[in-house]
Design brief:
By secondary structure, the protein is α/β, with parallel strands linked by helices. The protein has 2 domains: 20-86 and 203-282, P-loop containing nucleotide triphosphate hydrolases (Rossmann fold), CATH 3.40.50; 103-172, no CATH class. The protein is 36% helix and 21% strand. It has helices at 65-73, 112-123, 127-140, 156-170, 186-203, 214-220, 251-276; strands spanning 23-32, 39-49, 54-58, 80-85, 88-89, 97-100, 174-178, 206-211, 223-227, 234-239. β1 and β2 (39-49) form a beta hairpin. The chain binds adenosine-5'-triphosphate and magnesium ion. It holds the Pfam family ABC_tran. One of its GO terms (molecular function) is ATP hydrolysis activity.
Length: 282
Amino acid sequence: MTATATLRKPEPAHAAAPGAAEIAIDHASKVFGTGEGAVVALEDVTVTIPSGQFVCLLGPSGCGKSTLLNAIAGFSPLTSGTIRMAGRPVVDPGPDRGMVFQEYALFPWMTVEQNIRFGLDIKGVGRGEADAIVARIAGTLGLSDFLGRFPKDLSGGMRQRVAIARILALDPPVMLMDEPFGALDALTRRTLQDELLRIWAEYRKTIVFVTHSIEEAIYLADRIVVLTYRPGRMKRDLTVPLARPRDTASAEFNALKRELAGLVMEEQQRFTQAELTGSAVD
Ligand SMILES: Nc1ncnc2c1ncn2[C@@H]1O[C@H](COP(=O)(O)OP(=O)(O)OP(=O)(O)O)[C@@H](O)[C@H]1O
Ligand SMILES: [Mg+2]
């Protein structure tokens, strides 16, 4: 499935109210440990992500991408600063934020259908309604013929479809994704990127997507936030001015790629230097 120029569809009935999914990150800092061994993973990051925006967090290993995403998810509190979701401080995980990880966090003892249905059961959604949601979401992600399979019998790409379906079934306004396609081969990755763009447009989610890949960030995002390596500060906040579907071979795409590569490489060199001097713990 290829993303089309008509990505933005009319507002579906279940869409969140404007502003309902705004994420306001204000002077966010996070320090792991204390004393000599303390690691400043994030320092004074301030960024507001409007409802419906697709944002990529980009930077080399150890620059605090997962730390920031986990703080938005409510998994790991900040040391100082605040994160507000639709105006309310984030203090713990909530049904308004769904997380997709790189390592296909599926229940291996459950079938695809049971994995997708799991959150609905916890939420107390009635059987008939849950059946309808599972069928619709499975259809959306091309999983209808795989509902009886177990995760071990699926390819990496299919497993990641299930992970996305599981979150989508709960219909959170915000999807947080930590290198979800990092372990996939290039063609599967592109297919899932296109599917994600389609889903984002159709369901009007706010997406915060972590990646190492400059090309992936430019292909997907409305906006790219580049972080520095230790401490993780905001290095650049860049709007991607390209219309979708994006042509990765175009001159504009490649100009942006060069610009971002310069920024990321500066931080990558700091990471490499830290590794050589033994101060990196990644
Ligand atoms: N629980 C922890 N205890 C101590 N240090 C940590 C912990 N989690 C992360 N760090 C450190 O904080 C820094 C930021 O880590 P983080 O995982 O957010 O980076 P990242 O950008 O997601 O990297 P990667 O691309 O490798 O996933 C790193 O230096 C890491 O070693
Ligand atoms: Mg990470």
